[in-house]
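Researcher: Good morning. I'm working through a list of sequences from a screen, and I'd like to move beyond sequence-only analysis. For each chain I'm collecting a predicted structure so we can compare shapes side by side. This is the next one on the list. No need for commentary yet; just the structure.
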Amino acid sequence: YGVSLLTTPDPEYLHEGGITLCDGIKGDDNYKSKKWLGFKDENLELLINLNEKKEIRAINIIGMVNKELNIVAPENIKLFSSPTGETNSYKLLHQFIPSIDSGKRVQSFSSQTLKHTCQFLKILVENPGKPVGDSLVGNWIFVSEIEVR
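Model: Good morning. Structure tokens for this chain:
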């Protein structure tokens, strides 16, 4: 499916751009591999065109958490859908706070079961923002794959 990034990753972690998120290749523990897009102190916002109307049962986002490197889990994930794909036609479909498994670096952030038919999706992965303390260090969100089921 087609992915259009509305926010640009940090240049060091841009790699192949939006196609990275739907190429079927999940990232591993190496955040520097070309399998990850990295966003410093920024949200990840993107549009997905499924090319035809499909029933959406769930959204799964493969992310990374590594507190030593200020790679954090999203604060919130919001899913929007649109019947036409026009900018002002997206309506909130679902939002959730991702659950974290503190024993893993590579995480799977999944929505609850959805039953919604659409062609156009917008996903907002919210960065919790700059950490308290050292202003030179920011919070990073790393995402390697977005699965639409």
